[in-house]
Amino acid sequence: MHFMKINENVKIKELTTMRLGGLARYVIELETVEDVEKAYLFAKEHQLPVFILGTGSNVIGKDEGFKGVILLNRIKGIRFIDELTIDAMGGELLDDLVAFTTEKNLSGIEALSAIPGTVGAAPVQNVGAYGQEIEQVLESVHAYDLKEEKYVTIKKEDMNLGYRQSIFNQGKDAGRYLIISMRIHLSHDRLTPPFYTSLQSYVEEHQITDFSPKSIREMVTEIRWSKLPKPEEMASSGSFFKNVYLDDQEAERLRSMNVPVWKGNKVPSGWLIDHAGLKGKSFYGMRVSEKAALILINESAQSYAHLKQAREEIVSIIEKKYGLTLKQEPVELE
Questions:
Q1: Domain 235-332 carries which CATH code?
Q2: I need a surface site. Which of 4, 18, 111, 327 has the fewest CB within 10 A?
Q3: Which has the closest alpha carbon to 239: 280, 285, 288?
């Protein structure tokens, strides 16, 4: 017989990769679909708010903790619906799903290799890297609607997907759905050059001609771990600031300042931070990574207050230099 695990007064910093945050009143591990309804009922009976958490790689805990119920999605399983369509359960690691698909020689998410986090979090953030985004392959999600207290299927066109956003993290329905599984449709196509800058450089430097999903996965994994801190080695939330999207007028202003403006009027925030001389600099126990300026590493910060001060200082420096406001990518647990 399966018993749902309910833990009390759990340190949030032990559930998140930035390693900050006070106590959570309750933490429930969801291991079966049946646990979802039971856990929500528990929260409802105790009149407590709910927060859904995967690996905690894109979530920042606050000093005051969380006086509600954190639901840890640990529901596993990957299965084929047909030759190219896959259902993956929300508690699977995204990287395990990528490994599974590339082993089957299927294309569509190979560039998302080595991104920390769960399958359930992928549609929430519309996870993307090296020219691929989850929305390019996503068909639908099966979810539990916490408001209506029922299971629902949500089609991609109803998710309002954008850059690092969706109905799951923006607007009136943010936090309303617990994603149980995600359906994706892949292909036998191949990614072809030219690639995203660092991937293209790697291809040229190593004279690579094999662009199979498995080969792309190997390259992306190597590039990513050469730049990014591994969560088990350093406290970090990966990319801390979102890239900046501009209108045409703003884009021209930035170009006149010799700032790179990419397709879609996108300005890489890492470039801004780097060229403001902040790489390797420390603020209140948080250090800007020497390898990738978008990464903030928690070296010695003991509280969310320290992170907030560091963030505000970096944002202020970029505003003064470029007239642009950087936005934080990780969500805050509240």
A1: 3.90.78.10
A2: 327
A3: 288
Q: How far is CA 301 from CA 13, 61, 93, 270, 288, in A?
A: 12, 13, 28, 22, 13
**Pick the catalytic residue: 92, 110, 133, 329?**
329
How do beta strands 286-288 and 235-239 pair?
unpaired
- In 3D, which of 225, 227, 200, 218 has the Cα closest to residue 290? 227
Per the annotation, the verdict on 205 as an active-site residue is no
CB neighbour list of residue 108: distance below 8 Å, 6 or more residues apart? 101, 132, 136, 137, 184, 185, 186, 187
Task: Out of 113, 239, 269, 289, pick the active-site residue.
Answer: 239
Are the beta carbons of 168 and 124 closer than 8 angstroms?
yes
Q: Which CATH class is domain 5-73?
A: alpha beta
- Alpha-carbon Rg for the chain, nearest whole angstrom, is 20
pLDDT digit string, tens, across residues 31-89: 999 999 999 999 999 999 999 999 999 999 999 999 999 999 999 999 999 999 999 99
Please confirm, yes or no, whether 79 is among the known catalytic residues. no
Q: What is the CATH number of domain 78-185?
A: 3.30.465.10
pTM of structure? 0.91
Task: Identify the CA nearest to 307 among candidates 321, 326, 288.
Answer: 288
Active-site pick, 164, 183, 217, 311 = 164
Q: Where are the domains of the chain?
A: 5-73, 78-185, 235-332
CB-based contacts of 249, cutoff 8 Å, min separation 6:
none
Instruction: Verify whether residue 19 is a known catalytic residue.
Output: no
Range of weakest confidence among 124-128, 213-217, 232-236, 327-331: 232-236
